[in-house]
Specification:
Shape: elongated
Radius of gyration: 25 Å
Distance between the termini: 37 Å
Strand content: 25-35%
Largest sheet: 8 strands, mixed
Number of helices: 13
Number of domains: 2
Helix content: 25-40%
Strand order of the largest sheet: 9-10-11-8-12-15-14-13
Order of helices and strands: EEEHEHHHHHHEHHHHEEEHEEEEHEEE
Length: about 350
């Protein structure tokens, strides 16, 4: 039975979450990456996503690290600049720092040096074992969450607010996510593996199982040993939320509609894009969604322009899926900050899919 595994380093070694095709799961703590691979390869893994740098530069820095910091913004400090191979294999921090400075002109933190032994573990395994090289790929939990949410996380992962923010996202893709963490915390000592380590392993396992993986950078660099220097993350082709709903009113009743919705109901009016002002009507804000009120005469309002707009994370995915199933895609007038298209479902209903323009 094929499995998908997420791995994060922890104080006692390596914490792994295995997800099965059936929806079941298991958690394990291994003292070394060799022990992890010896057991996990018996589970027929399709992919093991691990939060550790794979691929070490001979000089300079990795494009993967620089691009990941850029997309993470305020969470960018969670991505280390990986030192050179010679520095990682130095016997002590002072010597490693000096070696790295001589080669690249850069020094690195003691915090990064504290995981150098884990970097060496994975590097040695992938150099020695061809099968492991085919299965292990690098990821980063904050990049994974950025991909799921389409923005960096608002809270630090070690805080309760950060935990709740992350576990809520995971539960959308894997309903048992809270149970995985709760039961894992009962099974393992906090001194050996932290709650955040468990969440990081779980998001990696979920991403591995759901696929649709994208790389940073899109085309990987390779180190001198042929290892890819690329951070993988998951961009989910799922509907995220209702973006807006549209209703129509008679052309001579627009001001009455404004008085009702904005005046009586108290909905806040927001500006329309310049490109749509000529169509008349007005837009209103409802929480994090919008109500668009447009003029239209001589129609049955139950069978015309009223529609729902679904916000998605991968517009191209949906475009291909719909056209592959014989759905005709229509054009939409561009609006700032978004890409979108519309179509009629097989029953004649008007539907819009909308996506924020990429910040990358």
């Amino acid at each position: 039975m094929t499995t998908y595994i997420g791995v994060d380093g922890c104080r006692a070694g390596w914490f792994a979450i295995t997800l099965y095709e059936t929806g079941s799961w298991r958690a394990d703590l291994f003292p070394s990456i060799g022990k992890l691979w010896a057991e996990c390869k018996q589970r027929d893994p399709a992919l093991i996503l691990i939060d550790i740098p794979i691929g070490l530069p001979e000089d300079g820095s990795r494009l993967a690290d620089a691009e990941a910091r850029r997309v993470l913004g305020k969470r960018g400090s969670s991505v280390f600049s990986v030192p050179t191979r010679a520095a990682i294999y130095a016997p002590a921090y002072a010597a490693a720092n000096e070696i790295n400075f001589q080669i690249s002109g850069k020094r690195f933190s003691l915090q990064l040096w504290n995981i150098a032994d884990k970097i060496r573990e994975v590097d040695a395994l992938l150099q020695q074992d061809h099968d492991a090289r085919l299965i292990f790929r690098e990821t980063h939990p904050e990049v994974l969450f950025w991909g799921l949410a389409e923005k960096p996380m608002d809270h630090i992962k070690k805080l309760n607010t950060g935990y709740q923010e992350r576990i809520s996202l995971l539960q959308n893709l894997f309903p048992d996510a809270p149970k995985v963490i709760t039961e894992s915390r009962k099974a393992y000592r906090r001194l050996d593996v932290g709650r955040d380590d468990m969440v990081d392993a779980l998001v990696a396992a979920i991403a591995a199982k759901h696929g649709n993986l994208i790389g940073i950078p899109a085309t990987p660099q390779y180190d001198a040993r042929g290892l890819p220097m690329q951070i993988l993350y998951h961009r989910s082709p799922i509907v995220l939320r209702l973006h807006h709903a549209q209703i129509t009113v008679p052309s001579d009743q627009v001001e009455a509609a404004r008085a009702f919705y904005s005046g009586l109901l108290g909905l806040r009016e927001i500006p329309k894009p310049d490109s749509l002002i000529g169509r008349g009507g007005f837009w209103l804000r409802i929480g994090d969604a919008e109500l668009h009120v447009s003029p239209e005469d001589g129609v049955n309002r139950e069978a015309t322009k009223a529609h729902l707009a679904y916000q998605v994370a991968n517009l191209a995915y949906w475009h291909k899926l719909l056209t592959d199933h014989g759905i005709t895609i229509g054009d939409s007038i561009p609006i700032p900050g978004y890409e979108r298209f519309e179509f009629r479902d097989p029953f004649g209903n008007r539907v819009e899919l909308i996506q924020k323009e990429s910040s990358r």
